[in-house]
Write a structure and sequence with these properties.
alpha+beta
């Protein structure tokens, strides 16, 4: 009984202290918990900020890749498996990109055969660590077309193992078809410019010769006139002077006509005239100039044919075409005629039985300064003048020719 009373007294005495101690412990625990929560909240907010930055970085990265039309990929150097992360290359059809991981051997099947060996070595070198990076251009096949497209890739080793061998390789690829087309166009333009410079030099040399030849004849024959007393000899000299005058004038006219038409300073002079009469007059002028054994004839589709066109330019074109036919035809016939085409156009032609023009030169005969035969007199401007004039009249000019059999030059123009 006494022990129970003693226990109750101790409890009554120390219970308040116990309660206060327990409360103090709880307060300390609560404070520690609050500090822990606060710290955890700070860590969480920091992680959320980093996550937001990472997300923003990924969005910006993806935007840049998309804007530059790139594909990004990585290769596991150990397994030789390539995986495309993004692919924003311009698509030219179905099946042009690899959406699933593939081995490098499977990738090689997409390369053009001529580039497979080179690109296989490039990938092998970087996967084995022989090189740190590469920059290559190559051609890829497409499933929808027989024409390949050009592509350019950059790659570098991103991570190595403990032995220093590559583990991961990252790279980007982009299509460069437009750039390649531009490069090819620039090469063609450069070649044409170089050829044009060469032809201009040849033209200057030809013009010097062509102008000097009739000019020397004019000066020489003119100086002889005072010493000639016979009327027949004087007439012969005068005829030779007039002939060389016409040659000199024709050369200068060719240069001036091309310059004026291309500068837009020469307007069409439209008149209505009989085409039969026009062709006959031009042919009659060339009959005395034809080589012995060559016959000049005409073929008209109608008894008369009135058209509305630039008579002067048409006569100039016919003069050049007939002049060439006479130069290169040693025997046979030269025929001038016309026919109506189905599309309300008229075709005027000059057909000869001359030496003909090889197929590989037929596209070039209308180029300025170009001469098929350097030993035949001429400045190489006649057919170029014809083409410029034909285009200015809304027409077109061309030819068909067989070496050894002859040529046919034709002018297509509106039938008005």
């Amino acid at each position: 009984m006494f022990q129970l009373l003693l226990l109750d007294g101790l409890v009554a005495t120390y219970l308040p202290y116990f309660i206060w101690g327990l409360g103090l412990v709880l307060v300390i625990v609560a404070i520690a918990y609050l500090f822990a929560q606060r710290r955890e909240g700070q860590v969480l907010r920091s992680e959320l900020v980093q996550l937001s930055k990472l997300k923003k970085h990924n969005v910006e990265y993806e935007f840049v890749v998309k804007a530059m039309k790139l594909s990004t990929w990585h290769i596991d150097a150990k397994t030789r498996v390539i995986t495309f992360d993004y692919d924003y290359r311009e698509k030219s059809g179905e099946g042009d990109s690899m959406t699933e991981p593939a081995t490098l051997d499977e990738l090689m099947q997409l390369f053009v055969a001529e580039d497979v060996a080179r690109m296989s070595k490039v990938f092998d070198d970087i996967c084995t660590g022989r090189v740190q990076e590469f920059h290559e251009q190559y051609r890829m096949k497409t499933t929808h077309s027989q024409r390949p497209y050009w592509e350019e890739s950059f790659a570098t080793v991103a991570r190595r193992d403990t032995e220093g061998l590559p583990e991961s390789i990252v790279g980007t690829s982009m299509r460069i078809g437009q750039r390649k087309a531009m490069e090819e166009a620039l090469v063609v333009a450069r070649n044409r410019a170089e050829e044009s410079d060469r032809l201009k030099s040849a033209f200057i040399a030809n013009m010097s010769h062509e102008i000097r030849t009739p000019l020397n004849a004019i000066i020489g024959f003119t100086s002889l006139l005072p010493d000639i007393t016979g009327d027949e000899e004087r007439h012969q000299l005068i005829d030779l002077i007039q002939e060389n005058n016409q040659k000199l004038l024709q050369i200068i006219d060719d240069v001036m006509n091309i310059s004026k038409i291309e500068a837009g300073n020469d307007q069409l002079q439209m008149v209505t005239f009989d085409l039969n009469l026009c062709l006959t007059e031009v042919v009659d002028r060339f009959r005395p100039k034809a080589n012995p054994g060559v016959t000049l004839t005409t073929e008209f589709a109608a008894a008369s044919k009135f058209i509305n066109s630039d008579l002067g330019r048409l006569q100039t074109i016919l003069t050049h075409l007939l002049s060439n036919a006479v130069k290169f035809t040693q025997q046979g016939t030269i025929t001038v005629g016309y026919e109506s085409l189905d599309n309300k156009r008229l075709r005027i032609y000059v057909r000869d039985t001359g030496k003909g023009i090889p197929q590989e030169l037929q596209e070039r005969v209308f180029e300025r300064f170009f001469k098929v035969d350097e030993f035949v007199p001429g400045a190489g401007l006649g057919l170029s003048t014809c083409r410029v004039m034909a285009f200015s009249m809304g027409g077109n000019i061309g030819l068909s020719s067989t070496p050894g059999e002859g040529s046919t030059f034709w002018l297509d123009m509106p039938e008005q």
